[in-house]
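Q: Given only this backbone (314 positions), what sequence would you predict?
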C-alpha cells in the first residue's frame, strides 16, 4: 500500500515520534564530511511547487539528494499547464516517467489529497492553501525536542504562537503537533486574525504571556492571502504583537524564539534575532533537511531495521 504524508492528524503521535527518531539518524548523516548515503538509490522524487518557496523547496531537494534519490523539479511557468493542460493530465504524465514520490505545494487546500487520487506514488504535502504544512510542524517539533532535551515528550512545555493564525497553515499543523506531544499552546493574535474555530486558548495580549512560556513562535502576516484590512496598521500591529527590544528583554533565558520564515523584520520581529539568547530560527532551517530526509526514508525505504542500518549507517 502506498504511504503518504498529508497532515499531522493523519500521522498521529506515534508517527510523529517515529519521524523524529529517524531524524536523529539523518542529523548524524548530515554531520559527516560527506553527508550522502545510498538509502534511496533508484528512487525518484518529483518536486511540484505551485507557490513560491525557498526553504521548503531547497530543503526537500537537498534531502532527496543526500539519500541518493533522483530528483525532478517541476517548473510551473515552463509547463504545459500554460497551454491549457489540466493538473490531472500533468500529474499522470509525470507519473508515467517513473516517480516514486511527489512533493507538492499548492495554493488550494486539499490539493495533495486530490493528487493522491491520480497516482500510485507517495505524496508529501509541502503546504496546501491555509490548511496544512506537516513537514514544517515536524521540523519544529524536532527543533524543540533537541533544544530543550525533551525526547520523551513536551508535557509542561508552554508555547505561544503569535500573529496571523487565521491564514497560517503552519499554525494549524504546528499547534496540532505540539498538542499531540503534550505541550500547552496559546494563540496570541488580534481577533481578526484568529480562525473562527480553534481548540487552543487565545489572547490578544502578548505581554500577559511573555513571562510564562518556554517557546515563542512568531508568524508573519500573510498579506498575500488577505482581501481586506484586518489590522489598523503595521506599526500598531508591531506595538501590540511584535517582538520589540523591551519584550525580548523580558524573555527567560531558556525561552526558544522560533519563526517558520520568511520573516518580516520590523513587523513581527522588531529585533535582530541573532542577538536573542534563545534564537533557534536557523536551527529550524538546518533541521528541516534532517526531518525531510526522515520523511522520504519513512515513505520510500523498506522501513526495516536492516534497511536503516544498510542504507543510512553504512
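A: Predicted residues:
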Amino acid at each position: 500500500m502506498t504511504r503518504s504524508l498529508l497532515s499531522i492528524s493523519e500521522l498521529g503521535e506515534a508517527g510523529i515520534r517515529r519521524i523524529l527518531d529517524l531524524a536523529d539518524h539523518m542529523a548524524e548523516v548530515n554531520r559527516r564530511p560527506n553527508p550522502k548515503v545510498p538509502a534511496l538509490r533508484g528512487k525518484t522524487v518529483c518536486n511540484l511547487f505551485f507557490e513560491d518557496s525557498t526553504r521548503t523547496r531547497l530543503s526537500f531537494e537537498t534531502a532527496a539528494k543526500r539519500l541518493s534519490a533522483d530528483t525532478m523539479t517541476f517548473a510551473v511557468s515552463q509547463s504545459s499547464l500554460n497551454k491549457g493542460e489540466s493538473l490531472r493530465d500533468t500529474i499522470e504524465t509525470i507519473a508515467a516517467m517513473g516517480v516514486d514520490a511527489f512533493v507538492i505545494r499548492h495554493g488550494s487546500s486539499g490539493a495533495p489529497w486530490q493528487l493522491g487520487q491520480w497516482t500510485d506514488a507517495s505524496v508529501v504535502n509541502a503546504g496546501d492553501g491555509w490548511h496544512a504544512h506537516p513537514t514544517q510542524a515536524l521540523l519544529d517539533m524536532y527543533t524543540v525536542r533537541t533544544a530543550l532535551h525533551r525526547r520523551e515528550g513536551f508535557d509542561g512545555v508552554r508555547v505561544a504562537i503569535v500573529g496571523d493564525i487565521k491564514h497560517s497553515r503552519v499554525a494549524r499543523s504546528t499547534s496540532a503537533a505540539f498538542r499531540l506531544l503534550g505541550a500547552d499552546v496559546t494563540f496570541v493574535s488580534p481577533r481578526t486574525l484568529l480562525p473562527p474555530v480553534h481548540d487552543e486558548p487565545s489572547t490578544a495580549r502578548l505581554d500577559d504571556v511573555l513571562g510564562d512560556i518556554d517557546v515563542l513562535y512568531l508568524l508573519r502576516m500573510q498579506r498575500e492571502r488577505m482581501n481586506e484590512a484586518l489590522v489598523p496598521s503595521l506599526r500598531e500591529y508591531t506595538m501590540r504583537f511584535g517582538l520589540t527590544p523591551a519584550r525580548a528583554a523580558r524573555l527567560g533565558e531558556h525561552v526558544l524564539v522560533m519563526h517558520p520564515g520568511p520573516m518580516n523584520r520590523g513587523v513581527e520581529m522588531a529585533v535582530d534575532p541573532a542577538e536573542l539568547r534563545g534564537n533557534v530560527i536557523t536551527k529550524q532551517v538546518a533541521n528541516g533537511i534532517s526531518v525531510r530526509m526522515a520523511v522520504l526514508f519513512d515513505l520510500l525505504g523498506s522501513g526495516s531495521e536492516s534497511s536503516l542500518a544498510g542504507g543510512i549507517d553504512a
